[in-house]
């Protein structure tokens, strides 16, 4: 079953000097429910632009993005997002950051804290529930940002090079935790990376952007090494 559909998508940016940048030329793409899709390609090939269009953070020049058969007109409540930079709210402590998505859905405090604590424990952050983001290392903040994105069990998890800034050991741990989340909760993940290894480790499908920017080169289906 399709969950995301991209049809004839084009995105042109106009720079301050009035140059036109065709970031995406004509993208067609279907993403199925429960797929773990890795978008991979060289820098400047349009990965982040394609992701932001799917997230509803920017809008197409031409063409459409549909999620569950509805045209995307803005960020979706059923989507979780993780960015390259640690994007926690600095004025909230860790547990209030992680439970934020549940708070705006009016989930009672006891239940949202229980969910946040469960995730933070899984991510090795139980001792930091009351800490503020600046008190945590970069890797810990990124773990908390991922916990926040998945706390409300979003149907789709969008991630833009979330592990790029982590050391190799932390990255491997987080990759494993992400696979666990995906196996347990059976959600759709769209993951941007420029690492071929990472895409092969994580993805059920790899979408390779062309070195000529703005186009998809190939799509590969991956046979998973685990059940
Ligand atoms: P990638 O994520 O693959 O590195 P991007 O999607 O970030 O590629 O960028 C694709 C192209 O679009 C690049 O040439 C980039 O400079 C340009 N671009 C991205 N965002 C903007 C923007 N807001 N304004 C102008 N150009 C942009
Ligand atoms: P990524 O590392 O994910 O490819 P970039 O570093 O290319 O992202 O872009 C970071 C931010 O800068 C984005 O918000 C993007 O839209 C913007 N951006 C990228 N290229 C340009 C550009 N040529 N002109 C203006 N903004 C840009």
From TrEMBL:
Pfam families on file: ABC_tran
Single GO MF descriptor: ATP hydrolysis activity
Keyword Nucleotide-binding attributed: yes
UniProt key word Nucleotide-binding: yes
InterPro entries reported in the protein's UniProt record: AAA+_ATPase, ABC_transporter-like_ATP-bd, ABC_transporter-like_CS, ABC_transporter_ATP-bind, P-loop_NTPase
Key words, A-Z: ATP-binding, Nucleotide-binding, Transport
Signal peptide limits: none
ABC transporter domain boundaries: 4-227
Protein name from the UniProt record: ABC transporter ATP-binding protein
Native organism: Senegalia massiliensis
